[in-house]
Amino acid sequence: MAQENNVLNTLTLYRTKWFADLVDENMLANSLLTKPHEVSTVLSYIFGRFDQGNIVDFITNGMGKTMTIENRQYEWNVMIEHDKAVRIVSASIDNTTIASTDVPGLNQQPIQLTLDEKWFGPGAILEFDDKEFQVRVVGEPYQDGSNWVYTVVVADGKVDSYIPPSLLAAGKQVSRTGSAYEEYSDEADIVNYQTPFKLRNHLTTMRMTYDITGDAYSSVMVIAFRDPKTKKSTYYWSAYQEWIALRQWYERVDRMTMYSKYNANADGTVNLIGTNGRPVYIGAGLLQQIAPANRKYYTTLTLDTLDTFLTDLSYNILGQGERKFIALTGEMGMREFDRVLRLKATSYNLIDNNTFVTGSGQNLTLGGQFTTYRGLNGIELTLKHFPIYDNPVFNRKLHPISGKPLESYRMTFIDYGMRDGESNLRKVVRKDRELVMWHVAGAVAPGTGHAKSITTLRANAKDGYQVNFLSEQGIMLSDPTTCGELICDAE
Q1: Domain 1-80+196-348+368-491 belongs to what topology?
Q2: What is the pLDDT of residue 434?
Q3: Among residues 161, 175, 169, which one has the least CA distance to residue 82?
């Protein structure tokens, strides 16, 4: 009752009563929602607004970023860099391991460089961790077990040049600068190939149902309930139940889209079995698809933390015209974001109307909130309030100072750009099964009411009906390396 007590005041006429599943007339009467033959005082109860929830669906399906498939499972490829640095296994001269006091490469003395893979061809110019030092590959490498041995010489050709032994130690790396050849040469560097890594996910089938009796269908309530989307009011429980069922359905879909955990084995099978003996597939939600390396923790947010994090996400990956991010966050995350930008703004001279003060004379108003940040190198971040992170029912770990859910401070950064003409973030649905709704009619059916003729065909003999919702869907983050999270760690 703690949550209810936070909103109770002298205007309260009825306390909240919690119930679920089958709704009958007796339950409504016990909850003080019906009154025989009389409708006098009317109160409008407006429940949570649709436009404040279902954010994941809005930024995917609502923006036309939905992919329809015909199978449960879906896969996609992600390309990474075409070149890379290769690890040094060992280095020697004339089969003698190089010591820390040696001067390898002096007088153009060849160095045998053992690398953990074949990545360079003859004539390639290699650079070490310290880019001031370069060598040239001489001839073809040969294989030694699982490693490859290269013969290299100092690239500048000077007799007094050498490579510091510390750069040749095991675990250090070399990478390609380019290549260089003599006149009339017949050697050449090689082309490197790297296959993309493949990601796999599968759709999750979600369901919800509710039942209502024939008496409850016709019951008139004391309180008028108003649909926040259409602004229509009703005194009938059946209409209200339909509204609130839809609201809860979309909220549950959004939470599942964010938090669900992939449950398949490597071979695609699952061990979770449903009541009828068939496997229950759960796909990876958005949070699980984000690259783990891009998940960082903070205690107190600073602009440097924010700027460094965004730079890391986009560095050497996104072009400067593509570095646009959306951050889903709760109310406390938005407050933290606003706080750090206000601190930064104090170092600037705000002129004209670009301030948070409006009005004149004695009638001044201080207000406004930062929701967009433009950083260096074309980085742009826009915050989007994500109510799911605020809900204390589902986010029970609290910040030690504010007492608000820690999840409310979470910032989920989504690269909202395009990949080969497709959005980086897409909703994925099974064909014709994005949202399936149906009813099982008894004596009553929604929309048509009670059956009035023996020729009326109904599915069962119950004095009521059942409504069902079903969806088979998932989410796909095409490139998980450009998305990330800042998570408050203040426990």
Answers
A1: phage-related protein like fold (3.90.1690)
A2: 92
A3: 175
